Amino acid sequence: MSLTDEFHTFRENFNEDIPAPAKIETKQDKIPAIDTNVPSDFRNIVNELLSPEFGITVEDFTDSTDFAFTIIVPAHLKTISDEDRKNGVVDKRTKRIPRALGANGVREYVTLVRQNLNKHFQKNGLSSPFDSKYE
Question: Which of 31, 39, 63, 98 is most enclosed, with most CB atoms within 10 A?
């Protein structure tokens, strides 16, 4: 068998044993799946100060030791207009945090987001989903 024939045989059989990835269904109002790139202490801070319904992402910068910390606000909190929601807009709040601050920097930012959300609820005559022990 020539090298070309071996290659074609290999190529034909390459994907036979690899199962197709399962289709993942997501819902904007569901509790986000656990992200293995998010340190558990960051997740715990968000769960404590906001709720487990809030999604989070952590992305490293290639040019520094800082990281981008993003909080994804659940749609049912109505922090964006119905029109924007229909157009696929998601309320994401991101901050660049120095790695040296770590969990303390995350806690500080999550507290600020919580305070801003409470101001939004008060301004719009909505009851806050948060208790007041962190205000």
Answer: 39
Strand partners, 55: 72
Length of the chain: 135
Low-confidence ranges of the chain (pLDDT < 50): 26-34, 133-135
* Residue range(s) defining the domain that contains residue 81: 28-134
- Contact between 50 and 32 under an 8 Å Cβ cutoff? The reply is no
User: In this structure, is residue 73 part of a structural domain?
Assistant: yes
User: CB under 8 Å to 29, separation ≥6 — which residues?
Assistant: 53, 74, 75, 76
**The predicted structure's pLDDT at residue 123:** 85
Tokens standing for 127? 């009851």
Strand 67-72's sheet: what is its strand order? Answer: 55-60, 67-72, 92-97
Distance, CA of 21 to CA of 39 (rounded, Å): 26
Residue 87 is assigned to a structural domain of this protein = yes
pLDDT tens digit sequence for 66-96? 999 999 998 888 788 888 888 888 899 999 9
43 contacts 28 by C-beta, under 8 angstroms: no
Q: Which three-class secondary structure state does DSSP give residue 73?
A: coil
